[in-house]
Specification:
386 residues; Rossmann fold; 2 domains; 6-stranded parallel beta sheet
């Protein structure tokens, strides 16, 4: 082991909610302390606002530094006007200057996504000249060739994938990444804290509860899930559906439909701690259809299993690598509301099967995504472990 922590610079210019990527990056580098010392370079713009990402960094006492942004920087893309081009150029230069300023004191750079590479080109070049590694992680992936990825690949030394499915998918359309080192390291997912007092949400009392957690959108199949619940609602009067996530804009088709639903469908909004909901659920539904979106990991599926709850889902992306069909949950092969409704009804009709799948799910994910196993994989990649 090194006599001092391995220092990693993380450009993290985000004002987002604490979704899967943000939560995973924060938890990973918290897990690696004290062997690895991260420095999160975060946006200055939202400092006066109560953003969950910043709140979580501060809660865990993870070191942070500030970008120089005073207003929102535009995303680097094809310009719409000369003014837009000027704003993007200013953001590009300022971002590169900010990242480069912190690079000499770090042993490596970690990019949570390819977009961050555009703000770290100067820093990545510095690292390559100094023989320091540059790590890039695919928290999401595209099944299409990416010029941006091909360009950033020139500066990256290592790519990190969450699943074998992700590595296979990205390398199939972007074989350039195979010229670099590639690693498959799943996210570590914390189990529910047993000693923490936790109460059942009031809306759950006296009901068998189905829970969905994630982005509320057509992409994630919320229309299919609502249709499925409508199919089973009349048969099971005690069943309720709880949809956890940030509500979309009022004119969004899903938002319009949710406003028309009765009180058997509850939308408590975004939840930083979803375990009180999962632990009191009868089944968790993950309705992402593969034809619309391939799940890069499926964090909420793992969290549901950690809470001892079976999952009903489609065969989207990496989910079949987490859910063992007929053993720890149910994978619906047809992208229909009837398929999800049938799978959920099977659990409602057979609580003993539900309990068997739940127990196996918890055992499986604890073995695959334990903190100890994932920590050792990261330390070996950084050259700090055996």
């Amino acid at each position: 082991m090194s006599h001092r922590p391995y220092r990693v610079l993380i450009p993290f210019n985000t004002d987002a909610l604490l979704y899967g990527m943000e939560r995973a990056v924060i938890e990973t580098f918290d897990l690696l302390r004290p062997d690895v010392e991260p420095l999160f370079l975060v946006s200055r713009n939202p400092r006066g606002v109560d953003y969950p990402v910043l709140r979580e960094l501060e809660r865990r006492r993870l070191p942070t530094a500030l970008f120089s942004d005073r207003t929102d920087w535009p995303r680097l893309q094809k310009p719409c006007s000369l003014l837009h081009l000027a704003r993007m150029l200013n953001a590009f230069l300022a971002g590169n200057r900010d990242v480069l300023r912190h690079t000499p004191n770090c042993d490596a750079i970690y990019l949570p996504g390819v977009d961050y590479g555009l703000f770290a080109l100067a820093a990545m070049l510095h690292c390559r000249l100094q023989h320091k590694p540059v790590f890039h992680q695919f928290h999401s992936f595209s099944a299409r060739p990416s010029r941006q990825l091909a360009f950033v690949n020139h500066f990256v030394t290592d790519h990190i994938h969450i699943t074998e499915f992700g590595l296979k998918t990205v390398s199939g359309t972007n074989p350039c990444i195979l010229r670099r080192s590639n690693h498959v390291i799943p996210h570590s997912v914390d189990p529910p804290a047993g000693a923490r007092p936790r109460t059942m949400p009031e809306s759950f009392r006296g009901h068998r509860n189905i829970v969905y957690a994630g982005q509320i959108s057509l992409t994630k199949g919320l229309d299919i899930l609502l249709d499925a619940f409508a199919l089973i609602a009349a048969r099971y009067p005690d069943v309720r559906l709880h949809i956890l996530g940030a509500l979309p804009a009022n004119d969004d088709p899903i938002a319009v439909r949710l406003r028309a639903c009765d009180n058997r469908i509850q939308c408590p909004g975004f939840q930083e701690d979803i375990y009180p909901f999962f632990e009191n659920a009868f089944v968790v539904a993950q309705s992402t259809p593969p034809s619309r979106c391939q799940e890069s990991f499926g964090r909420t599926v793992v969290e549901a299993a950690m809470a001892g709850i079976p999952v009903v889902c489609f065969a989207s992306g990496a989910l079949p690598g987490i859910v063992s069909n007929g053993v720890t949950g149910t994978i619906c092969r047809e992208e229909t509301a009837l398929a999800i409704a049938t799978a959920m009804s099977a659990y409602l009709d057979d609580p003993a099967m539900r309990d068997r799948h739940a127990a196996r799910a918890r055992t499986q994910v604890e073995a695959l995504f334990s903190r100890t196993a994932i920590r050792q994989k990261w330390l070996r990649m950084f050259g700090l472990g055996t």
